[in-house]
Design brief:
The complex is a heterodimer.
Chain A (H helix, E strand, L loop, with lengths): L7 E12 L2 E13 L4 E5 L6 H9 L7 E10 L2 E2 L5 H7 L4 E4 L13 H12 L4 H14 L5 H4 L9 H13 L5 E5 L7 H18 L2 E6 L2 H7 L2 E6 L2 E7 H6 L4 H8 L40 H5 L12 E2 L8
Parallel strand pairs in A: 3-8, 3-9, 6-7, 7-8
Antiparallel strand pairs in A: 1-2, 1-4, 4-5, 9-10, 10-11
Chain B lengths: L13 H36 L4 H8 L5 H10 L6 H13 L5 E2 L4 E2 H36 L4 H15 L2 H15 L17 H35 L2 H8 L4 H38 L5 H10 L3 H29 L7
Antiparallel strand pairs in B: 1-2
The chains are: A alpha/beta, B mainly alpha.
């Protein structure tokens, strides 16, 4: 960690939702780092704080009700949490790019593909309109858009979901950002297109050496894309490991449950997928102890009263669980 | 690219969009024919059901009591024919652009309307332009300053102008701006003895335009505000913010154009009521338009003129709706050849 600053370094990030029903800690002390060329997957069920973490890094939280109440987000060494909005305008789209879940609704329905790509180029670069058009065409070819020249004039509704996602990716990487956040970029796509988009993201990342945060709830996608995995539950990091270690030897009972709930090809058909009983607790009614305790198979007395802190069970690994620590 | 073969729709270029627009235009024009026929039949029947005939008033006003003259007049105006025959004759005449004769103006109906038409078109166009510009601007401001003092101010103003009857608003404005302050003329379209200079007409146009337009401005403000707020929640707005665009740029380039669509929709629907509203406003301000002519013709049971105005009014509304359809198509590329 010495010498050059990492592209992205999140320390103790806390994001709270201020609602009428009280304050909810949507992201509660998240720390993670992403190195250049590295992909960190952020995994968890809906509502565990994955997307709000990403929006916190972009400083695009819906305010009200969400606000960052503490922590640091260091982008290439600079903490962006205290920066004024005008400074953030120069960072979003230039130093951090973001890809969203539903590609078709992520594009403006009444603007052409070209206009939407040119816009980001003209915001952050010195290119004139003509040069920006040429660059937009190059970008579309770079993201593997079939028949790119003709697609420049197309409107989003004339493209398939996969093609729209390629356009969104082209916009996100247009200014060669050092960090790319992909928030469930393949969830809304067909399986075949999913594989293409994943391959594309990997290639672009390798070519440009971008740091990537990959948010997903699909462990199959994690296995395919990530170098490291951060498992989140109810706003907190519960486990972190390299992707191989995580699948070989998951430590947290929640991770074990997630992996058990993923279908494996070749398994007996009659075999029922394991599920995790119960539901994610509402953020304003978290139990006093470990948030996962009410659903946990290995729950102990201590889990109900004390919150487990992150411990280091091995090199490069973190887990927040009393049972995994051996009581 | 297995999954992407699904939609090989070619991009619609300029010329393709023009063809689509022409196709839409042609279809709307064809649809207008049965519509106009319906309008003519219904209006004709309504007038037949109205009490009294213009002949009674005409003979009374001119103190004609000679039965032979009355009979001659009845024959001239075809009032002895059965109603269905009169209707067929009327439709036949309409097909030759013959709207009948107005005894009161002593000229063909079409000519009487033609003289009054420019004033009404001017009033309608200026009122709609005012309504759209104020409505859109106020709606955008209210949505950007949502739940602040400015938002409340806009909402209260919109509520006031929506609730106030336009004739009352017109009279109150005359009292304030013409009688008390003396800034603007009480009525008419130009100074007595004036030569109809542009400035003089504009000076006379201000109050009637405000009286007619502010009601619609109020509606557009409310629609625009809620439409802006709705569009601002959509995913592509977040994408635009993630590109590093400022809030103002996002609002103007991404939210505004999408939010305009419902305003354009109701504009088309309301074209007819703007015309109806101008009848009232023209009477209040003695504006020499078709509305004044209609009001005068109804009072004098000058039915050929009344019928003629209704038919021409329907034509104007149909034409305006076609224009709105074309604007809608231009604004929203998703509307395509159907």
């Amino acid at each position: 960690m010495s010498g050059q600053a990492l592209p992205l370094e999140i320390t103790d990030l806390r994001t709270t939702l201020f609602t009428r029903r009280g304050e909810m800690k949507a992201v509660d002390g998240l720390s993670l780092t992403v190195g250049a060329g590295e992909t960190v997957a952020l995994v968890g069920e809906s509502g565990c704080g994955k997307s709000l973490s990403a929006l916190s890094v972009m400083r695009l939280l819906p305010d009200p009700p969400a606000r960052i109440v503490g922590g640091q987000v260091r982008l290439n060494g600079r903490d962006i949490v205290p920066l004024p909005e005008e400074t953030m305008l120069g960072i979003r789209g230039k130093e951090i790019g973001m890809i969203f879940q539903d590609p078709i609704s992520s594009l403006n329905p009444v603007a052409t593909v070209e206009k939407q790509i040119v816009e980001v180029l003209m915001t952050h670069t010195e290119l004139g309109r003509g040069q920006a058009r040429v660059r937009a065409h190059e970008l579309l070819e770079l993201v593997g858009m079939p028949d790119a020249a003709r697609r420049l004039d197309a409107y989003p509704h004339q493209l398939s979901g996969g093609m729209c996602q390629r356009v969104v990716i082209a916009m996100a990487i247009a200014c060669s950002p050092s960090v790319l956040i992909a928030d469930e970029p393949t969830t809304a796509l067909d399986v075949t297109v999913q594989a293409q988009v994943l391959a594309l993201l990997k290639k672009l990342q390798a070519d440009a050496g971008m740091a990537m945060i990959f948010i997903t709830h699909d462990l199959g996608v994690v296995a395919e894309t990530a170098d490291r995995v951060v498992v989140m539950y109810a706003g907190r990091k519960v486990e972190e490991a390299s992707v191989d270690e995580l699948f070989e030897n998951p430590l947290h009972p929640y991770t074990v449950g997630l992996i058990g709930a993923t279908p494996t090809p070749g398994a007996e058909r009659a075999e029922r997928l394991a599920d995790i009983p119960g539901m994610v607790p509402p953020l304003n009614a978290l139990p006093q102890g470990c948030a996962f305790a009410p659903r946990c198979k290995r729950v102990m007395d201590r889990c109900l009263t004390e919150k487990p802190a992150l411990t280091v069970p091995g090199p490069g690994r973190l887990v927040a669980c009393f049972a995994a620590q051996g009581g | 690219m297995a999954g992407e073969l699904a939609s090989p729709t070619p991009a619609l270029r300029g010329s393709a969009r023009r063809t689509a627009a022409l196709r839409l235009l042609r279809r709307r024009l064809i649809q207008a024919v049965p519509l106009m026929l319906g309008v003519v039949i219904i209006n004709f029947c309504l007038i037949q059901m109205a009490p009294g005939s213009f002949l009674e008033l005409m003979t009374a006003e001119n103190q004609v009591s000679d039965p032979a003259t009355v009979a001659l007049l009845r024959k001239t105006y075809g009032l002895d024919d059965p109603v269905w025959m009169q209707l067929l004759k009327y439709i036949w005449a309409l097909l030759h652009f013959d709207f009948g004769f107005s005894y009161r103006q002593n000229m063909p109906v079409i000519q009487a309307i033609w003289i009054h038409l420019p004033a009404t078109i001017l009033l309608m166009v200026s009122s709609i332009a005012l309504a759209i510009s104020i409505g859109v601007a106020a709606g955008v401001v209210a949505s950007m300053k949502v739940r602040t003092f400015w938002d409340s101010l806009v909402s209260i103003a919109a509520m006031f102008f929506y609730a106030a009857p336009s004739f009352w608003l017109g009279i109150m404005m005359i009292v304030l701006f013409s009688v008390k302050l003396g800034w603007l003329p009480v009525g008419g379209m130009m100074k007595i003895g004036g030569n109809g200079g542009v400035l003089d007409i504009l000076h006379h146009l201000i109050l009637p335009t405000l009286a007619l337009g502010l009601f619609y401005a109020a509606i557009y403000t409310r629609v625009m505000r809620s439409s802006m707020l709705e569009v601002a929640q959509l995913d592509f707005v977040r994408t635009a913010r993630a590109k590093g665009l400022s809030r103002n740029k996002v609002t103007i380039h991404h939210v505004l154009r999408n939010a305009l669509l419902p305003v354009v929709t109701i504009l088309g629907v309301q074209m007819g009521t703007v015309l109806a509203g101008s009848v009232v406003i023209e009477s209040v301000f003695s504006w020499p338009g078709v509305g004044s002519l209609l009001f005068d013709s109804v009072s004098s049971r000058n039915y050929p003129v009344v019928l003629g105005i209704m038919v021409l009014g329907s034509l104007v509304v149909i034409a305006a709706n076609i224009a709105v359809d074309l604007i809608y198509m231009w604004l929203d590329p998703r509307i395509e050849i159907r």
